[in-house]
């Protein structure tokens, strides 16, 4: 049985196991008659060959309240795009596979490059941004949800619980964030949240003092989850980071654009497992190593925008404070794991903390040297202001790809 604790930050919805999911789904089907609900699936072609996606499609095929599914396909050639079209054809809902690497999409990218509005790097952020642009051009959905394509423990209840708070017209929420325990194969997972984000937020409050933004981020049980839903009125003005700071970036955008009472988090699963990133301790451009730097920079940028001054002395103090705090967190997680019969490799976890501590400094120096760095992809409102025809041409290019390579 879940608890019913409210932190006082953002509203939290628990799974108290007191209502059948079928009741929730019936309500969503009723809401969807007047408030169309769409789903975005950012996808690598390699995930079509993985162990998770076929089950995800089997579950989604039973979801009647979805009006549209948009699949953003990355790292695919023409043959693989054709295969992806066939692979996703099992979905009974209206669905579109966007081939992000097609010649037509590359031409659209060149137009954005000429305008100085192109995403800085490929990846999930660019994929999600592109799918949002297509959804904006369709102009027929009131609610949008996003989740990853590598969830090994997926079932349709996850989506129903994620979407419900923003689909219910009697609720005030504009954004819903999913959370869950990261447990799988007898281990406690979720290293970046456990060992970086939580102790970093605590340490920042000690070093720079209380900040409402830090309290807001710390109120999320799993701030790095890839599952969120929002009302589509937010999309044209939403800034999407192109780096690994996507999840923190979206929460920061909600903080910038919405009142806290318009944001909620919802428990969507008892057991969640997906593909795990390597630490890549020797390679700062890959894995959790790169992710931790980008997340730190995202937090620093937001705090600086609100008036916090970062210096080298502040960053050095933050590193020392973080290291002690992270070890304290590890002790609690280790004992929690033992009590629940789960495994934690303390040596590996402490090594991970050491890498993250170094990256807190690296990210700080990178930010201080280039405080005006903006990894955010321009909003779709800005793109439309610069080139009013681009969004229509973008949608037409997607349709032309589908027609030519059917």
TrEMBL record:
Domain of life of the native organism: Bacteria
Gene3D superfamilies reported in the protein's UniProt record: Spore Coat Polysaccharide Biosynthesis Protein SpsA, Chain A
The name this protein goes by in its record: Glucosyl-3-phosphoglycerate synthase
Provenance organism: Poseidonocella sedimentorum
Organismal lineage: Bacteria, Pseudomonadati, Pseudomonadota, Alphaproteobacteria, Rhodobacterales
